[in-house]
Amino acid sequence: MGVVTSIRRESASGRSITIDVPGWGGNIAGQHTDVRLTASNGYTAVRSYSVASAGVGDRIELAVDRLPSGEVSPYLVDTLREGDELELRGPLGGWFVWTPQQAENVQLIGGGSGIVPLMAMIRSHEASGSTTPFRLLYSVRTPLDAFFRAELESPSANLEVTWIFTRHAPSGCSRPAGRITAADLEAHGFPAALAPTVFVCGPTGFVETVATALVALGHEPDRVKTERFGGA
Q1: What global pTM score does this model have?
Q2: In the chain, what is the greatest distance between 2 CA atoms, to the nearest angstrom?
Q3: 94 three-class SS
Q4: Cα(7)–Cα(121) distance, integer angstroms
Q5: Residues 6+ apart with CB under 8 A from 205
Q6: Chain-wide mean pLDDT for the chain?
Q7: What is the full DSSP assignment across 64-81?
Q8: What 8-state DSSP symbol labels residue 144?
Q9: What pLDDT score was predicted for residue 165?
Q10: What contacts 161, CB < 8 A, 6 or more positions away?
Q11: What range does the record give for the signal peptide (predicted)?
């Protein structure tokens, strides 16, 4: 059981939630947790959420985008308050993860709230002092829909960020608004010849489009790790 210590607005429909979880112990960047809600009539709903934080400790950060048809995300975004308790299980997952011991180039590709596990990797990379080259392609509808925008816009010597806006690009942006394409991946991602490890996270359609394009560009399928989400 965890206790909510703070909630921060990330977008009109997104919130980041900091939770103290006694006994958590820590997690690897990219892992997730199951959140279980129980109604007064005994009905339960369980959903998996990626953890935006990484490392040793009993405090974690989640970031949640409200799904209009969701059972759990509307509660977490609109109803949850500081001091509330949440039933959590984890950390979970051992494949879609990054550790500072990995030395190969890392390409991160996120769509919307799919940035969350990638953010844990970015933070772990920064905290460890790793000099492994990291690149991020982050696709969002508009600048106002970006999670962790201020943090991602802070200069970092070992992180290169490229923004893809699908509905409205800000003034001065050289790329017109539109969905991510193979040309974007080729122009701003590590080439397949360098054999980077690629992490792709976002809605199912986004992940399938990106993964297919990466393989067509020559990336080995077993080096393209994917995680997708959507309504229940």
Answers
A1: 0.94
A2: 56
A3: coil
A4: 21
A5: none
A6: 94
A7: EE--TT-SSHHIIIII--
A8: G
A9: 96
A10: 135, 136, 138, 152, 153
A11: none
- What architecture does CATH give domain 106-229? 3-Layer(aba) Sandwich (3.40)
What's phi and psi for 205, nearest 5 deg?
Answer: -60, -40
Looking at residue 123, the DSSP 8-state letter turns out to be H
Say whether pLDDT at 214 is over 60: yes
Task: Evaluate whether 197 touches 176 at the Cβ level (below 8 Å).
Answer: no
- The token duo for 198 is 């690629």
For residue 232, what pLDDT is reported? 41
Amino acid at 83: G
Candidate CATH numbers 2.40.30.10, 2.60.40.10, 2.60.200.30, 3.30.420.40; the one for domain 2-92 = 2.40.30.10
CA distance 2 to 166: 36
Please check whether residue 49 is in contact with residue 36, taking contact to mean a CB–CB distance below 8 angstroms: no
pLDDT digits (tens, 9 = 90+) for 21-46: 999 999 999 999 999 999 888 899 99
Q: Tell me the two tokens of residue 221.
A: 């399928």
Write out pLDDT tens, residues 169-180.
888 788 888 999
- Report helix, strand or coil for 222: helix
Half-sphere exposure of 108 (CA within 13 A, CB side): 31
* Domain extents in the chain: 2-92, 106-229
Q: Give 153's DSSP letter.
A: T
